[in-house]
Model the fold of this input.
Amino acid sequence: MSTTADLDLAAVAAYLSQHIDGFQGPLQAEKFAVGQSNPTFRLSGPDRSWVLRRKPPGVLLKSAHAVEREYRVQKALAGSDVPVPAMHHLCEDDSVIGSAFYVMEEIKGRHFNDPRLPDVAVPDRLAIFEEMNRVLAAIHSVDLSAVGLSDYGPDGNYYRRQIDRWTKQYRASETDQIAPMEELISWLDSNIPAEDGQRTLVHGDYRIDNMLFAADGPQCLAVLDWELSTTGHPYADLAAVIMQWQMPPGGEGRGLAGVDRSTEGLISDQGFIDLYCQRRGLPGIDRFGFYLAFAFFRMAAILQGVYKRALDGNASDPGRAKAFGAYVPLFAQHGLDAAK
Done:
């Protein structure tokens, strides 16, 4: 985390003092290193702290960086089986700090960047993955009508919609033609599964580093980063978890490729899928390769957008964002491997 000068703290304090009961300045702010898409800050006042999340500055792709949707879905999930921070206020007036932002409760919990969980004792690791599985099933079991999210995403085939959307986003940020990406787009376009009647809340970026856990146990305290959430097909989230684990271990890949999971107390891909199916009363998942290929495709498109923002000077962390460009062909090739 670093101190920041790119947030008008006087404007934020003046605005929030009129919109959050009991708010008191003056404020200090620190920018979180995580969160490539929407810059995120800890706001510290005299007696408490909050978290502010805003759209990045500059020209943005249409429908990207939807902090308004993040605020809405988390507010709707308050009190449900899906743990989220309390939402305090959404500001859609760009004149305050130059873009929309929202303020939420700061959750103080354990954050894991590495799914190998190196700082957790081996016997305690499996329980964290089981909790991750429980929360994912809870997201997909939310009664959309009861929480007011039945209109949170359009009807129709989710994968058709998503492939069209992310192909369009990818084209808008394309810098070079990448042969595996072209082949993957074509394959996905021709292999969309038939509808199976499942329409659930979808997080859109579900992985362990978008969660906060209790300091002294496996309980999840909050699921964060709902920017890509919508209503759609639940296997997209499940496949995204498995996709992440197929990446190389370490700082950039943050995966489990080549790790002896049994020895390390970590759950297997199939074990995670089976547990998920058990929680949701599903007999199993046919053609999981399609969902995995889709997950790699979508992440490749997202990384291309991050890379293009870096080139345009709008990335939250420019150095790291430029490095992401090298991963686009890798993700596309992994997607093709999953498809075949």
About this structure: The chain is about 40% helix and 10% strand. The chain has a mean pLDDT of 91.
